[in-house]
């Protein structure tokens, strides 16, 4: 769907994008994450032919960009920072004008198409208000409506929830999931790791212009080798595990213990056979935040990553 090879953009001595090899596959909801200034917007603009690359190749929907933009762009819905609109016209009028350059059809078909797009993004009731009176969130929704009007095969969105309140973010997430289930491949940039973790199935991490990680989200959320166990009898659990090879109790807090063990099912069997009443057992996995911090190192404080690593709790010696 999107493939770049050695994609690079320099502004004078600044390499905004540096040798990026993107691989976005059909059916992905791909999250393109990175700190402010890491090069996300520049990359998105190059994908759409709005900025010329200094070097490297771009293929979108199997065609070379920007050379084939006339045949590619009608098949792509795009939302980039600060969506453009005529401020004195209503959202509906703006979409109607945009649609006039689109796929055509009768006046009635066009009216329906505009109405449906406004409804999809929650702007159906906004009436004749001019866009200059819209909030940032409403402008963002209008930009999304414009991106949706062509029922695109591929949606490319730059920070789509920028300026939206929590309810708006939730609505946009549901909208994107709905479109994805109807066959649209989604590529979105974001600096909000929690948003990407909830929505995306494949992630690329940009750090100072370089793509430092690209993988399935599920692979990034790999096991930490630690298992949390909740039991009414933690002392008994610690004693059962004390002589077991490959099981180390790392923490005990209230009714919860954390055990280093590679196989949660086997750990459960050991505890149950030892007479421990286990009420909850879960494998601790790396969060996306942890994976990103691991590869972005020193610049990681520029990614929205509040708080310390959840998995870095100091080990507490536990005795039976
Ligand atoms: P944000 O999340 O803040 O939008 P970003 O990841 O989208 O950031 P870009 O806007 O692509 O990052 O910027 C990447 C780098 O390129 C930054 O250092 C920026 O200052 C620089 N840059 C972007 N556009 C230009 C330009 N037109 N001229 C000079 N430098 C630019």
What does this structure look like?
This protein has 320 residues and is α/β, with parallel strands linked by helices. It has 2 domains: 2-218, P-loop containing nucleotide triphosphate hydrolases (Rossmann fold, 3-Layer(aba) Sandwich), CATH 3.40.50.300; 221-316, Alpha-Beta Plaits (2-Layer Sandwich). 32% of the residues lie in helices and 28% in strands. The chain is built from 11 helices and 15 strands. The strands form 3 sheets. It has a 6-stranded mixed sheet with strand order 7-8-9-4-10-11, sandwiched between helices. Strand 8, helix 6 and strand 9 form a beta-alpha-beta unit. Bound molecules: adenosine-5'-triphosphate. Adenosine-5'-triphosphate binds at residues 11, 14, 16, 34, 36-42, 191. This is ABC transporter ATP-binding protein. It comes from Rhodococcus cerastii.
Low-confidence stretches: 300-320
Give the bound compounds.
Answer: adenosine-5'-triphosphate
Q: Within the CATH hierarchy, at the fold level, what is the topology of the largest domain?
A: Rossmann fold
Span of the ends, CA to CA: 56 Å
Structural class: alpha/beta
Q: What fraction strand?
A: 25-35%
Strand order in the sheet with the most strands:
7-8-9-4-10-11
